[in-house]
Amino acid sequence: MLFNSLGFLVFFALVLAYYYTPVFSWISKKRMLLLTSYLFYGLWNPPLILLLWISTMVDWITGNKLAVEQNQRRRNLWLALSMVVNLGFLAFFKYGNFLLENFVWLAGLAGWEYQPRPMDIILPMGISFYTFQTMSYTIDLYRRKIEPARTFLDFALYVTFFPQLVAGPIVRAHDLISQFYEQKKATVNQFIWGAFLLTLGLFEKVVLADTLLSGTSDDVFSAGKPLHILDAWTGTLAFAGQIFFDFAGYSSCAIGIAMMLGITLGDNFLYPYGSIGFSEFWRRWHISLSSWLKDYLYIPLGGNRFGPSRMYIALMLTMLLGGLWHGAAWTFVAWGFLHGIYLVIERLLKRYVKVDINWWNGALLALFTFFLVNLTWVFFRAEDFASAGIMLQSMLYWHPEGAKILGHFDIIKVLTISALLFASHYYMRHHTLMMLAKNIHPWILGVVWASMLFLMAIAQSAGEQFIYFQF
Amino acid sequence: MQLKTSLLLAFVLALLALVSWEVYLRSQGRVPDLSDDKNLWARERAKVDQLGREDVILTGSSRVLFDVQIYEWEKLTGRQPLQLASPGSSPLPIFRDLVRNTDFTGTIVVGVTEGLFFSTTFPEARPWSRPQTKVDHYRDRTYAQRLNFALSLPFQNNLALVSINEEEWSDDTNLKALLGRIQIGNRTGEEPFPPFNNFACADNNRNTRMSARTVNDTAFAGPVQRVWLAVGRSRRDPEKEATMAYFLEDAQKFKARGGNLILVRCPSSGMLAAGEAMGFPREAFWDELVSQSGARAYHYKDYDALSHFECPEWSHLSGPDADVFTREWVSILQQDNALITAKAQ
User: Fold this and answer.
1) What is the mean pLDDT of chain B?
2) Between chain B's N and C termini, which has fewer beta carbons within 10 Å?
3) Which of B148, B173, B174 sits opposite A5 (nearest CB)?
């Protein structure tokens, strides 16, 4: 089920009605949340709920064993069971075709013309998200960092909680499970602020990403020929905006919906395009994934404990795998590789060059960071390396006679949105939305809110999926 | 923070803005309109499994959609045909779906608009991908999509401001269409495509009629005529052999299991009809298709009762003319015993 659909509005209204009916106990409300979360997921493809159940059962059992088991060898085996099941699902459903394609390619290099039958594997929605979430629970228990969930209901709800089930934020057990122990109820202000975040998220998705930016981005990236520099940059900037508004919009919706239920989810995006440098960018972009990769991949790979060379290797490996997490294609690996290179260069520079950041040079450095981030989006969005190559060449003015495929209005529209996006992110580096809302007159907030509602109503989403569902 | 004040104000202002927008659109002559999209098509397609041998399925492109009025048909035969034609489409993907994925043995009418029927078998080409998307959607649609569609129907049927069409008409009033109408100069140097305004009105059973404005306002119908000419100019050479072979394979299969296949060529007029006659000579396309398929076939030019119509925008009949066309054609079909009836069985 999509947040940007009429079905969800009805679904959520019914959930809220039950949740805030005083006669029901907290346990019955949690049961209702669990069942409706399965319904939320199953309305897409009912049989794939089985994967969720298996993942839930395996991590519940391994978690309980890890909580009491003292024998280290057995502890390793229980952890391995969880890893094999979760990563096995991910490998089969998400990377099965990719692995097969690469196997066929390698076989071809070795002179073996192998032609397997296509596997036609369905990618279960949100599998990368819930898999990482359940794995974090088991790994944290293995590390003795958390206590096991008190009841199966609490744990199953942690894995399946519908606001963040299919596209995050990837929530850690210690942040969410304990919230299910006591009855939760949003205050009036929390409820209204949650509704505002839900509106904001839907506005970002429906109006900004789908209506204003996606068409331009699609036109440019499907052109399949060298483009004029202005068209190439406009298309790339449109995609940079589209993917931010799409994904940050989903996160805002998830956080807002949870808040309306009195449950707190952490921030997932903090104005990333205003970042000065890539370390900061990854502290602001998809925070729940980057912190997951840091805790469960970068640090176990050695982190910065074994000297600079090992640190750079750990960093590169983390970013390469982070790239692959986003999609089963080498273009995503290239995207992660570029980010890894940027991070390595930045750390090297920081060792030798000291810069006092003020507002002005900070703005220039943030703009430069934004420029470099846009180069990486080309690999993220392009269908293959050949298309990415043509696009990068066009952006670097290698094709002065490149085709002009966009109209003036499209260019003005995208450049205006991109400029506002960058400026607002740079301004918001040291602010929060809540601070901003507190400092403006309630009538202004009301007018902004009404404008978003009106524009969403006339934009009339055709129920486009969120980009990150495919990851 | 005074969030209650903001919420109340937001609700009131948004409601006022939406009511004002609805009133404005209606003052401009807009009426609530159902989007004839893949969801509506899939809902009709789902009815095939309940159909019997006496039932009729209509396939083809927009001419069958506009020209065959299912309620008129029902008055004469007692059975309402199922409308599965798809505008701007080759009928081949939908016909294949009906032949391969159902065991329907009643009557299938295939509308033949030569420029679409013989256009292509390339899956990415628009005349093919468009109907194939509908077929795929019927197979793959989720329960969530079915729920959303069902919930959207009251809004589509009662609010003029709900204006999201698969066709992406030039005069749609959703935000994307409104912004798409803003043109500043001509940077690409390409000749702009004529505005393709909505001239159709579909109901819950996909019965489609031409809007009264298209019939009465030549200034409104003119741009639609220019669209047909532009489409004709940009058309690639037909793939006659490939399309014919594809269709004949399914036609034989359908007839072999006892199905009744009827081909129909609906009227066209003006420069479009002249262009079609030049680009797709009857003897080389229609006659050969009829001969090779062995199906009952009805070309509007062969019947006095069907050949006197004038299409307001050269390609489709007005609503009242479509009623007459349907009645006349069904009478001819009945005289020919071309439809399967309980008596005949």
Assistant:
1) 92
2) C
3) B148
